[in-house]
Amino acid sequence: MRIAVVLGFLFAGAYLVAVLEARLATGRLRLAAPGWAAMALLGRESVVPRQPDRLFFETAPALLLIAALLAAAVLPLAPGLFITNLATGALFVNAALAYVLVALLMAGWGPDGAYALIGGWRFLGQLIAYSMLIVMPITAVAMRAESLLTTDIVASQTGLWNILYQPLGFVLFFIAAMGVAFLPPFDLPSAEGELAGGVTSEYTGVRLAVFRLGRLVLVITLSAATVVFYLGGWLGPVLPPWAWSAVKILAVSATMLLIGHYLPRIREAHLLAWCWKLGIPLALLNIFIVGVMVLVWP
Amino acid sequence: MAVITLQTFFIALFGIAALWFGVVVFRTSSMMRSALALLFSQTALGAMFLAMQAEFLGVLQIMMMATEMSIMAIFMVMFMMDPGGLGEMDMTHQKRLSIAAGVIGALAVSGVALFAHWGPTATVAPAAAEQIRGLGTELLGRSMIIFETAGVTILTAMIAATAVAMPVLQRKKTS
Questions:
Q1: Considering its fold, how many domains does chain A have in total?
Q2: pTM of the model
Q3: Which residue in A has a C-alpha nearest to residue B131's C-alpha?
């Protein structure tokens, strides 16, 4: 039952993200648009390109969806409302998100297409940029909570949310999360108008529908991770805990999409340079500051 | 008893998966397939750790291998003449030496596993959170010097590799 509720929540969130994405793309708010688009995709022929690496081609969309769902499995939406509460929860989120890369590499290599291939390898470069900025801020969050349990991390923010306790970590994690979900301006692997869809360029029909669903769930999962790690999870007055989680997660998703809408796509070399020359030193500084604060003002 | 049997079943299942993916590494000619087969072989080892109730080690293994093996994949694709494996290039070489080395290695490892004195073993695995605390204490206590030395050595190697690569770029610019 609990698992069904969490999954329902995730897919409902993914639908709303799709509505928002369509609103930003077309300028019109149509609640039924993603539903119609999904039905159209399911009804369309799912073309297999010539000489594909069939195994990778078929596995990639499913693996993307599974990776996003696994990462969401350890994120609590309310006290007791999670799929599983692992003692290594915060680390497990990282482990599951690492397979987003594997899925995109497979989607890049599988179809035997130039655009897809470039998109796949681009995401590998993107991982080198963002991965440290996911791990290091989470380290600082776990330091404050003195636990990797995601429920403990939420509980540690009862007095003061992490967005105020460690704002630097929040900014870095937020940017890196957009990088993981390859949202604009970090949509290097899909890059519409430049790579004609990149990793998704050779996918059609059902396979494309699964791929898009996986990406939408990934956006919701990363928003949920941001909420759990920095925005106090389910904590908040008046409304029930699950409602607070829902409101915060949707607000974070909407902010990610809005920011991307107004920024030009970043170049791969610039992304790497910014992340390594500025991002990682700042992430280390964040760990140091939080370390001092934990000792001085627990 | 039923729990132990289930645990043994999963350890064996993931162990066989790890071995099978390990065999696939050498049976395919595609560099990408080879790299990802090694990735899933290592992931299966991580799953074995999980089945053995070593949660932290398992999750860490599953996380690290996904990124490491993917990065290895691009190097394999870059440096091999036939990355897609479509040219039917023979990927094996020095077969006798490799087989001998493999057999001796396997025998040595099995010997150590069977005959080494492992000391007293715990009958029940400690709770996952306790394991993380124990590992942290170990890494920042008795084993600190080993891990710090390893870390600094890897960092030195990275800087050295970058330094070796740099002058080539500079020469190109000046010429």
A1: 1
A2: 0.89
A3: A87
